[in-house]
């Protein structure tokens, strides 16, 4: 089995997903509500800062991605996604998706993400969104 992980710097991803098995997570438990004062306003996130991981399933084979997101003040600051497909065509889709994902999600509010098709891969988007939903549920304070 071929396994490839792509990691990129700061990003924000906000997406609604369906349920799937959570594979693990690490979180900062210092606070349940994150409040950061801004210039003339206050920013409040319903998510606890930390790094969270989940497996997102999709397709009829079924296929999956292992997704790891780091959140700060409700914004995605880092994302990693595996490309474990063994079928050459599926692997190519996963690799293109994994390469394009960081630019689509890093620096964005997690609640604004809705990845439907990215780099021509709609199934991969479904798997990512599935994992994202699990991560949002676990990170909710």
Give a structural overview.
There is one protein chain. The chain has 141 residues and is α+β, with helices and mostly antiparallel strands. It has one domain. Helix content is 26%, strand content 32%. It has helices spanning 88-105, 122-139; strands at residues 5-8, 24-27, 34-38, 41-45, 50-58, 63-72, 75-82. A five-stranded antiparallel beta sheet has the order 1-7-6-5-2. A hairpin with a 4-residue loop joins strand 5 and strand 6 (63-72). Mean pLDDT is 76; it is low at 1-42.
Order the strands across the largest sheet as they lie in space. Answer: 1-7-6-5-2
Secondary structure category: alpha+beta
The total domain count is: 1
Percent of residues in helices: 25-40%
What overall form do the CA principal axes indicate? elongated
For the secondary structure, the number of strands is 7
Largest sheet: 5 strands, antiparallel
Brief sketch in words of this structure:
The protein has 141 residues and is an alpha+beta fold. The protein has helices spanning 88-105, 122-139, and strands spanning 5-8, 24-27, 34-38, 41-45, 50-58, 63-72, 75-82.
């Amino acid at each position: 089995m071929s396994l490839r992980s792509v990691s990129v710097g700061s990003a924000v991803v906000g997406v609604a997903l369906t349920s799937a098995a959570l594979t693990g997570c690490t979180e900062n438990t210092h606070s349940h509500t994150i409040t950061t004062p801004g210039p003339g306003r206050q920013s409040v996130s319903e998510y606890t800062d930390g790094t969270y991981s989940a497996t997102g399933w999709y397709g009829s084979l079924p296929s999956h991605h292992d997704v790891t997101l780091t959140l700060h003040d409700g914004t995605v600051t880092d994302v990693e996604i595996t490309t474990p497909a063994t079928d050459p065509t599926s692997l190519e889709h996963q690799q293109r998706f994994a390469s394009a994902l960081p630019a689509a999600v890093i620096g964005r509010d997690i609640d604004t993400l809705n990845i439907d098709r990215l780099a021509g891969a709609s199934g991969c988007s479904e798997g990512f969104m599935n994992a994202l939903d699990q991560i949002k549920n676990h990170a909710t304070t």
